[in-house]
């Protein structure tokens, strides 16, 4: 028996080794992987060692963020944001349900495209990660201490919140620009779609972020022409008071955009002086508009979220606010707009253009000062293209999308159509190197790439097409990321790694800025949850009409109480489970048979609540879902549900069998 | 033996991968991270964590009354196991309790060739499960980690183990509970 299993293992090990040998020889022979020879050593993080960078990656259609290590490409965690997560009860527990509340009611899913890591003086400060909801417009703030979503704010007057979340140099503001223009919420919204040009508006919201708490509030919204805002970047250094938004569909098409939004040679990059806009907002130039949006906040002390509906927003119309907004012509439906680390150069990536225009902030200022305009667009001055242009990168590749920076004067632009990354010199505009990506890259990320102080060293490509890169899993494949070494003159492919959801933008940050702040436990003495049982002696079951509240403790390896009787059909049971452990990485889980929601995971010191409406009489097992200890399998109990007219008394216990329960059972 | 053989063969085969690379004229990797593969072999006791409550080992190690016990736990190589998730009930003899054991017996147990005997004795002091004192009833027996049983008796409100060691205090730890006892338990 032992011999055969040993042989089996040996065979498997040999097969794996031989397969590995084959592959490495193949790549040496010039196979398609094209990884550099020292690639394995460069991405190898020895067992027990830590990666150099955190990679905070958007999940796209899974609505979450995920956390990877760089250079290993290992995934550490999925942080639930806009989508329910049955794995830990996010959006299922009573405490977290309010986080997914919106003006449309409870929305259990969204499409999270972009990440913005908070900065101070333009550099990563390791405090928060912001993410956007594309579908039902929202912005979320995730703590980089707890890796929990702490706040979600809905954006009114918005649809398709794609141009979001991008932040100013000191995280004063996070912006949210509309992809879909729509009629404003407070006007006549029931209009023919083909009255787009008359009735549809775009907006850009400036959401203030509290310096200390990170709490968000919509400070003001700009009312803008009905075009599509795509991506954005704030200025830095000299340009720090400005924000740049790429715009497409300046044709204002409302159907078959594939054709109708590509008619013009140039669309725009919109330049907004946000400092001036803020001053206008403060000086009463804005108008308050009736809207409806939700603002949801998770309180770390009682582990409970609250959702507040807000009914007003301050809007600024460029007509009333001169010198606030300008348009810069940019070739062919620009997608990315990126600001170099100095803040002087603004790069527009026209996804259908044959060149990459690089704009100069100094020239933009001169053009504005001398009113060097090329007419206006819906009343907004259009700056002359040649007057604001630093130059164009000629024939860089096909389908430029996004640009990141290494802090050494180089730009790296992703090209979807030609499936490559091109490195070029920002000042001379010369192409320095190009590498293929497998296949069809979307976003790319360099640690600190969008900040004033990039950390460089690595570059990650987030590819849109996977095809044959991994073992196939039927028609639906994982998304593929690729890691490159950019420390030398030439970019070198090191690693493919699979990702969950569909990553769009991502940021990478040195581990040293984050790991020291990572929370290990919630202190039980600070738990202010109204139904917390902070010790076995506080555990109890209470009836309030047809609500039964179970204040339960979980500790290795039992629940208190673990036998509950006296629940009746028609009751709604709330299991408020407090994990009284004070030990890192010892969560407990809770599940009850027949629950129509999910399990909950409760971190040490935390209280979470699972609502359960029994649908029949009988005995219902409960158990711990997180392997917590050697006696995890013993961590279980029973709830008895009796008919509505039963006289079984409410009763609970752990470790005792009181006669009353037996007597009641005989009745 | 067979397991050792298996690893050895795997190791040789793994080495041959490098040989494949070497044949193509590339030098073997000199990246320092690559050689650090198995150096991080410490168990859970080495986890850096100042926020969590102390586990049973750390609680004992922070109390001067348990220096003999802690030294014995270290000698027996049980520190990592007892830093694990548990849950453990540790019947912890004080230094005074160990003083009742003949000095030469104790010294002999601390020798390397007696490690198995020492482990057997210490594991007889550990139960996997959380036994608060209120759960300990007169006449109960519990099967300890070493496979032997202990018997609980109650006298004058006190809890006595095997009729010889009395629980004199109880301390909670993150991964279990420590009942301080005034005698060393000897496996039957």
From TrEMBL, chain A:
Its main location: other. It is found in: Cell envelope. The keyword Protease does not apply. One of its GO terms (cellular component) is cell envelope. Pfam families: nos_propeller. Residues 1-19 form the signal peptide. The keyword Transferase does not apply. GO terms for molecular function: copper ion binding. Keywords: Copper, Metal-binding, Signal. This is Nitrous oxide reductase apoprotein. The lineage of its organism: Bacteria, Pseudomonadati, Bacteroidota, Chitinophagia, Chitinophagales.
Automatic annotation (TrEMBL), chain B:
Residues 53-185 form the FAS1 domain. Residues 24-47 are annotated as: Disordered. Coiled coil: none annotated. InterPro entries: Adhesion/Biosynth-related, FAS1_dom_sf, FAS1_domain. Gene3D superfamilies: FAS1 domain. SMART domains: FAS1. Residues 1-21 form the signal peptide. Pfam families: Fasciclin. GO terms for cellular component: extracellular space. Keywords: Signal. It comes from the Bacteria. The keyword DNA-binding does not apply. Residues 28-42 have a biased composition (Low complexity). This is Uncaracterized surface protein containing fasciclin (FAS1) repeats. It comes from Cnuella takakiae. The lineage of its organism: Bacteria, Pseudomonadati, Bacteroidota, Chitinophagia, Chitinophagales.
């Amino acid at each position: 028996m032992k011999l055969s299993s040993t042989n089996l293992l040996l065979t498997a090990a040999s097969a794996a080794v031989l397969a590995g040998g084959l592959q490495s020889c193949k790549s040496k022979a010039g196979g398609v992987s094209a990884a550099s020879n020292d690639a394995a050593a460069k991405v190898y993080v020895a067992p027990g060692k830590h990666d150099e960078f955190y990679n905070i990656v958007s999940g796209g259609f899974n609505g979450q963020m995920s956390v990877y290590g760089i250079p290993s490409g290992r995934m550490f965690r999925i942080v639930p944001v806009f989508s329910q997560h049955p794995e830990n009860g996010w959006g299922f527990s009573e405490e977290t349900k309010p986080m997914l509340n919106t003006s449309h009611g409870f929305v259990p899913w969204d499409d999270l495209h972009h990440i913005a890591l908070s900065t101070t003086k333009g550099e990563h400060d390791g405090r928060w990660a912001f993410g956007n909801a594309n579908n039902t417009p929202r912005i979320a703030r995730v703590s980089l201490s707890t890796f929990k979503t702490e706040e979600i704010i809905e954006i009114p007057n918005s649809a398709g919140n794609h141009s979001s979340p991008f932040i100013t140099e000191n995280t004063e503001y996070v912006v949210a620009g509309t992809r879909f223009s729509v009629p404003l919420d407070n006007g006549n919204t029931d209009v023919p779609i083909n009255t787009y040009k008359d009735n549809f508006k775009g907006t850009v919201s400036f959401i203030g972020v509290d310096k200390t708490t990170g709490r968000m509030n919509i400070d003001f919204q700009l009312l803008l022409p009905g075009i599509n805002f795509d991506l954005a970047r704030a200025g830095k250094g000299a340009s720090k008071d400005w924000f740049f938004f790429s715009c497409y569909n300046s044709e204002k098409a409302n159907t078959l955009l594939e054709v109708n939004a590509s008619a013009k040679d140039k669309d725009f990059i919109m330049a907004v002086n946000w400092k001036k806009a803020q001053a206008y907002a403060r000086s009463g130039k804005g108008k308050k508009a009736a809207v409806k949006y939700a603002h949801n906040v998770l309180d770390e002390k009682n582990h409970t979220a609250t959702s507040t509906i807000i009914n007003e927003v301050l809007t600024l119309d460029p007509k009333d606010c001169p010198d606030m907004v300008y348009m810069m012509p940019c070739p062919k439906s620009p997608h990315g707009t990126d600001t170099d680390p100095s803040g002087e150069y603004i790069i527009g990536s026209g996804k259908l253009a044959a060149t990459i225009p690089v704009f100069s902030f100094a020239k933009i200022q001169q053009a504005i000062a001398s009113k060097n305009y090329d007419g206006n667009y819906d009343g907004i001055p259009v700056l002359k293209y040649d007057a604001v242009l630093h130059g164009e990168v000629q024939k860089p590749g096909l389908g430029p999308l996004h640009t990141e920076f290494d802090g050494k004067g180089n730009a790296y632009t992703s090209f979807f159509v030609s499936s490559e990354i091109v490195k070029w010199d920002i000042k001379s505009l010369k192409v320095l190197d190009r590498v293929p990506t497998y296949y069809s890259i979307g976003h790319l990320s360099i640690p600190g790439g969008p900040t004033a102080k990039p950390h460089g060293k690595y570059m990650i490509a987030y590819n849109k097409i996977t095809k044959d890169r991994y073992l196939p899993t039927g028609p639906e494949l994982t998304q593929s990321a690729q890691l490159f070494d950019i420390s030398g003159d030439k970019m070198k492919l090191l690693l493919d790694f699979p990702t969950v959801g569909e990553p769009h933008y991502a940021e990478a940050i040195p581990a040293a800025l984050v790991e020291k702040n990572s929370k290990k436990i919630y202190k039980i003495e600070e738990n202010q949850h109204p139904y917390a049982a902070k010790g076995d002696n506080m555990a109890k079951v209470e009836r309030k009409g047809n609500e039964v509240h179970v204040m339960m403790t979980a500790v290795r390896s039992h629940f208190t109480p673990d036998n509950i009787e006296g629940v009746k059909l028609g009751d709604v049971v709330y299991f408020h489970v407090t994990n009284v452990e004070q030990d890192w990485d010892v969560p407990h889980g809770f599940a009850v048979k027949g629950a129509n929601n999910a399990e909950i995971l409760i971190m040490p010191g935390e209280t979470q609540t699972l609502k359960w409406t029994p649908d029949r009489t009988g005995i219902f097992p409960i158990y711990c879902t997180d392997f917590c200890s050697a006696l995890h399998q013993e961590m279980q109990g029973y709830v008895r549900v009796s008919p509505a007219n039963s006289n079984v008394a409410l009763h609970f216990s752990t470790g005792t069998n009181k006669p009353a329960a037996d007597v009641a059972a005989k009745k | 033996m067979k397991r050792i053989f298996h690893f050895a063969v795997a190791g040789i085969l793994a080495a041959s991968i490098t040989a494949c690379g070497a044949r193509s004229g590339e030098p073997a990797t000199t990246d320092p991270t690559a050689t650090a593969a198995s150096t991080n072999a410490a168990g859970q006791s080495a986890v850096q964590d100042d926020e969590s409550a102390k586990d049973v080992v750390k609680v004992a190690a922070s109390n001067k009354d348990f220096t003999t016990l802690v030294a014995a736990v270290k000698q027996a190589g049980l520190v990592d196991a007892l830093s694990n998730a548990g849950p453990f009930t540790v019947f912890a003899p004080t230094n005074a309790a160990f003083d009742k054991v003949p000095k030469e017996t104790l010294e002999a147990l601390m020798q390397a060739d007696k490690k198995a005997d020492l482990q057997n004795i210490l594991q007889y002091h550990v139960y996997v499960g959380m036994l608060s004192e209120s759960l300990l009833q007169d006449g109960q027996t519990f099967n300890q980690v070493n496979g032997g049983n202990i018997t609980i008796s109650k006298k004058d409100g006190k809890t006595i183990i095997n009729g010889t060691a009395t629980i004199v205090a109880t301390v909670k730890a993150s991964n279990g509970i420590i009942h301080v006892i005034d005698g060393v338990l000897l496996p039957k």
